[in-house]
Amino acid sequence: MPITQLEVSGYRSVRQLVLPVGPLTVIVGPNGSGKTNLYRSLYLLSASADGRLAQALAEEGGVPSVLWAGSRDKKPVRMTVGVTLDDLAYELSLGPVPPAAGKDRESPSLFNLDPEVKEEYLWTVESKRRAVLMERKDRTAFLRDSEGNRTTFPMQLWAGESVMAQLSEPHRFPRLAELQRALRMWRFYHHFRTDPEAPQRSPQVGVRTPVLAHDGRDLAAALQTIIEIGDAEGLERALEDAFPGSRVEIQAPQGRFSLFLHQPGLLRPLAARELSDGTLRYLCLLAALLSPRPPAFLALNEPETSLHPDLLEPLGRLIVDASMHSQVWVTTHAEPLAQAIAKRSRAEPVRLTKELGATVVTGRDVPEE
């Protein structure tokens, strides 16, 4: 289910923004322009489908930290994220927990960083017309079942998570289950550990790994999986493109996988613990983008971090190749990377800037409230 549109309002620097999403979307802009906020809004949708919405927001400092900080009208303080996928449209609106939200509704709750889902909708979209499949207001919701009958949710909803995380009846509500499966399968990479204590620098017990972990901890096993059951020739070409004359070797005595990189002119291969941060990060990007199990949607947040400028051109080619199998979203502040991608694809970069503290797309008017 490809994403065709993203709508965000009231989230950090994003006051209100509607953005078309294509097979390959590149978001470029200076630091602080709001690129990561758009990336995180997509991540929050995936987390909500997996029952991790409250935890994902807590990692950002809780709801009070993620709400739009600029001037507001008298409407309730809320953030809203919506997405259109094929013939489905989904929207999630949340705000802070009310001051008195303890069990007896008289004493305040200590969980004041948690979200409270205010509204949640799922529509089918046909010929630009929407038909409601699910509507939630606070702690109650109704859904259309597989026969088209209106069904009220049989119990009070927990305010801190999506309906998707609380209803498990795919045979009765197949479109809601379809949406949940789609969102849960999205894949995000925004931080590969490269510090001296990073797991991938030391031997790790390995199993076949068609999907690299979000932090790259199973890099050696992921690369060996590509070599054995994935696009081994593509891995060789990508290595030659980035590091001419180099090759990867994986050793696994007693099942503990270690990564080595052979480079021209050196009499021995370099172990993972000896590699530069940029080289190790690039190898993680190779494993992520050459996954033998490509996702429907793959998002990379500032993949150029710690890379030498000479690696941006090969990375751009790798990203374009990955977009042949997955819908790809990239946020970057590196103009050379955006141009390298544009040169090999039809994906013209979406450029962000700030106007009166709000994230806007360069060349577009700020949407009216």
UniProtKB/TrEMBL annotation:
- Domain ATPase AAA-type core residue range list: 24-333
According to the UniProt entry, its GO molecular function terms are:
ATP binding; ATP hydrolysis activity
What's one Pfam family here?
A: AAA_21
Write down the superkingdom of origin.
Answer: Bacteria
Q: Name one GO biological process term.
A: DNA synthesis involved in DNA repair
InterPro entries documented for this protein: ATPase_AAA_core, P-loop_NTPase, RecF-like
Descriptive protein name: ATPase
**Species in which this protein is naturally found:** Archangium gephyra
